[in-house]
Amino acid sequence: MTKWIVVLGVVLGVGFVRGQAATPAPAPASAPVQNNRADLADPTVAAAKLGKNGDPDAGFMKRHAQYLERAKKGDVGLLFLGDSITQGWEKPKEIWEAAFGQYKPANFGIGGDRTQHVLWRIENGELEGIKPKVAVIMIGTNNLSSDKPDMIAEGIEKIVQTTRQKTGAKVLLLGIFPRGKDPAEPNVKIAREKIAKINERIGKLDDGGKTIKFMDIKEKFLEPDATITKEVMPDYLHLSKDGYQRWADALKSELEEMMKE
Q1: Residue pair 229/178 in contact by the 8 Å Cβ criterion
Q2: What is residue 136's three-state secondary structure?
């Protein structure tokens, strides 16, 4: 009888251990979001954009190749770096030309880019051979859903540092633009609070315009009640033609001064 009790205890013990192994302990509520794709893991580490299958994203690599070719041609006086909001300058060409044409501008924006993707691009040739007087940088909105504000800010800081080191350009650093229709909506409230924290930290990079000037031009896109209209951002994220005109107008006087020196 004792023998059978021991055997039964061993069997039950093994089952209990197996049951524990199959049910891992829940992650703490404060644990960062874990991404399956390596290029989404850390906003402070350079990474090429990958597709869902884990291979390099074709659109991203095609754009990168185009920017490498543009860099080889040189003669860039003003550089824009960013994501789809920056890439969108390709559409209102008349506004772009009127506002920036005199400065020999180049637009290196890629839709969907996060801080780590811009870092990878500028560490892999896009800044080689060009010496713009000013680089306009606005990036980070695509990191908001998964990364903490301090990590996003650190990624932006690295982009600024790398751009300065490789080109010697002064940096006109823009705060992340506001997004979402109504700040009273829970998700919009969270996003805007994160944006505010990021902008507060990166704003400290401003040295009076000696090498870095920070501008938060959010008021240009907001109504008096802090809502955003479709006339400015049709999807409450990307800019309309009117939105780009507001952006251009906001930079006009600052760029004039920075490009003189």
Answers
A1: no
A2: strand
- Which residue is catalytic, options 117, 147, 238, 240? 238
Q: Catalytic residue among 64, 84, 146, 147, which? A: 84
Answer yes or no: 235 catalytic: yes
How would DSSP label each residue in 11-54?
HHHHHHHHHHHHSPPPPPTTPPPP-SSGGGS-TTS----B-TTS
- Confidence category of residue 27, pLDDT binned at 50, 70, 90: very low
Looking up tokens 């507060």 gives 200
pLDDT level of residue 111 (50, 70, 90 thresholds): very high
Question: Taking 80 as the threshold, does the pLDDT of residue 174 lie above it?
Answer: yes
Q: Which of 55, 235, 240, 249 is the catalytic position? A: 235
**CB atoms < 10 A from the CB of 1, how many?**
4
Q: At what angle do helices 186-202 and 149-167 cross, to 10 degrees?
A: 40
pLDDT band at 12 (very low <50, low <70, confident <90, very high): very low
Write down the residue that tokens 């990079």 correspond to: 205
**pTM of the predicted structure, to 2 decimals:** 0.86
DSSP class per residue in 171-198: EEEEPPPP-SS-TTSHHHHHHHHHHHHH
Catalytic site includes residue 117 = no
pLDDT at residue 220, as a whole number: 98
Average pLDDT over residues 104-113: 98
Query: For residues 88 and 136, what is the distance between their CA atoms, to the nearest angstrom?
Result: 14
